[in-house]
Amino acid sequence: MTGRELLDELIAQEQRLVFPAFDEADAWEVGGALRDVALSASLPVAISIRRNGQRLFHTALPGASADNDGWLDRKCAVVDRYGQSSLRVGEQFRVRGSTFEASSRLDPAVFAAHGGAFPLLLGGTGCVGTIAVSGLPQRDDHQLIVDVLDRLLGSDSSH
């Protein structure tokens, strides 16, 4: 898959993975579903769900570390700033022939455009938070979220 093809797929994911509403119970459902999938595959991840700056769900599974919490914060900062998945933001810079680190002019100690933070999107509203995973290679972190959201939202991941 070329960078442009990946970028198109990331955009399509954000267009289809939209919640009609999102409250604390939804955060628990999404977080629990992510945790269940990760536990069943023995994935060493930390998971975070935030809405409007409030942490609604957080867990760290065996093998995850405090470093994963730092990655969650940095990837979520990218989503908060751009309203797009952290993987999409990084890929947009790569498609233009650069990197986020070289061209964004943002502090890499605060922002990380690596896969694993997905915008919490509400229909008619837009981005109101983040759903994030850290502990796997960046595309795997991202895909774990997409797979769970596809299942919970009844989306067809193959379009």
Largest sheet: 4 strands, antiparallel
Q: Could you state the order of secondary-structure elements as H and E? A: HHEEHHHEEH
In terms of DSSP E residues, the strand content is 15-25%
Mean pLDDT: 95
Which architecture per CATH? 2-Layer Sandwich
The residue fraction in helices comes out at 40-55%
Span between termini: 17 Å
Number of helices: 6
Number of domains: 1
Q: Can you identify the CATH class?
A: Alpha Beta
Structural class: alpha+beta
User: What is the fold named in CATH at topology level?
Assistant: Beta-Lactamase
Radius of gyration: 14 Å
Lateral arrangement of strands in the main beta sheet = 2-1-4-3
CATH superfamily: Haem-degrading domain
Number of strands: 4
**Which stretches of 5+ consecutive residues score pLDDT under 50?**
none
User: What is the global morphology?
Assistant: globular
Description:
The protein has 159 residues and is of the alpha+beta class. The protein has a single domain, classed as Beta-Lactamase (2-Layer Sandwich), CATH 3.30.450.150. 49% of the residues lie in helices and 18% in strands. It is built from 6 helices and 4 strands. The protein has helices spanning 3-16, 24-40, 66-82, 86-95, 100-103, 138-153, and strands at residues 46-51, 54-60, 117-122, 126-134. It has a 4-stranded antiparallel beta sheet. A hairpin with a 2-residue loop joins strand 1 and strand 2 (54-60). Helix 1 runs antiparallel to helix 4 and helix 2 crosses helix 6. The longest helix is centred in the first third of the chain and has 17 residues, at 24-40. It starts with a helix and ends in a 6-residue tail after the last helix.
